[in-house]
Specification:
Length: 346
């Protein structure tokens, strides 16, 4: 049981404060109105003094969305302001119990009948994999690659293979800056679609292909691209995906149109179905689509279920690349990369 999980199940901690108050004042009911929870009797000393309870939005460095926390305030200054866990620690301390934070969280969870979150099938599989991995010497597999294609989209023969680092450096360079700005200035959807098809290079994150069709797949990369269209805050979604814990984000960047996001994910290929058979590419797409719908409230473009799905490359100086995939490569030549003469982008 973690503090964050406990607070998420208790209205940011407001239910914990209400619980402490009712231990001393059984008839008191906290009335929550928006972020204001009212003036309440002090449960720590229970001497008739008053505390004010409210829900704060606390900015967190590196996160776009703030934390929500129920906090208390003593108008008479008896205690410094704090959250529900701090109030609980003071409450039990006043009654002769000096609990560690772990003991305190367990105590509150027990009293409030909050159970540990159930482990998902993937979490159990990951724990099993980690145990097996700990018995072996650590090994770093070679970084998988994908096919890179020069524009226009009707060109189905790849120019070369590319690593995530190659694609990241392409996005960061100014090579596609002018075409990206031109596309985003166009208002007519059909004109934008035609312009994108003619003027943007693209990749097939699903693998290396002899030509861009599923039957010509030479080697799967273990990556999948999930497209989100018409997002109100694309930069915010990129930031959320960069901090995604349940799936391994390889890259995340804004789409050429500017109002979408492309999420390249490393498939958890060690995971299998309950009967031991591996998941297919399409099944992984369904799993990820359902996950982002529940976690972020966005619908994925259904065309991403095809392993030969093309992913257009814009200019995006704010693109995210997982540091695990960053190669030590300082002599990067975009011209040699584009004409296919630079192996690995060098």
């Amino acid at each position: 049981m973690t503090k964050e999980y406990l607070l998420s199940k208790t209205l940011y901690g407001a239910d914990i404060i209400q619980h402490l108050i009712r231990k001393e004042f059984p008839d008191h009911i906290m009335h929550v109105q928006g972020d204001w929870c009212g003036e309440c009797p002090d449960p720590v000393w229970a001497d008739g003094s008053i505390i004010e309870v409210h829900i704060d939005s606390i900015p967190v460095e590196g996160q776009r969305l703030p934390q929500r926390r129920a906090r208390y305030h003593y108008p008479d200054g008896q205690m410094l302001d704090g959250d529900a866990i701090a109030l609980a620690a003071a409450y039990y301390h006043q009654r002769g119990e000096n609990l560690t934070q772990e003991q305190l969280i367990a105590r509150l969870a027990e009293e409030l009948y909050i159970k540990e979150p159930p482990k998902s099938y993937f979490q159990k599989q990951e724990e099993k994999r980690q145990k097996e991995k700990s018995r072996k010497a650590p090994e770093l597999p070679p970084c998988p690659r994908m096919s890179f294609f020069r524009r226009p989209i009707r060109n189905t023969r790849p120019c070369r293979e590319a690593s995530p680092t190659d694609i990241y450096k392409y996005l960061m360079s100014d090579y596609a800056k002018a075409t990206t700005e031109q596309l985003r200035s166009l208002k007519d959807p059909k004109e934008r679609s035609r312009y994108k098809a003619e003027n943007f290079d693209y990749i097939t994150p699903g693998g290396i292909f002899r030509s861009r069709k599923e039957s010509d797949l030479a080697k799967a990369s273990g990556y999948i691209v999930i497209d989100f269209d018409h997002i109100p805050d694309p930069d915010g979604l990129v930031l959320l995906l960069a901090h995604e814990d349940n799936f391994e984000t390889v890259m995340a960047f804004r789409s050429p149109s500017g109002d979408g996001v492309k999420w390249i994910v490393a498939l958890p290929t060690h995971q299998t179905k309950p009967d031991g058979t591996p998941f297919t590419y399409g099944e992984f797409f369904t799993i990820l689509s359902n996950y982002v719908r529940q976690a972020y409230g966005y619908e994925a473009d259904p065309s991403g279920k095809d392993i030969c799905r093309a992913c257009f490359l814009p200019h995006d100086p704010d693109a995210f690349l997982n540091p695990f995939y960053l190669e030590d490569n300082y002599d990067y030549d975009i011209t040699r990369f584009l004409d296919g003469t630079a192996e690995g982008g060098r």
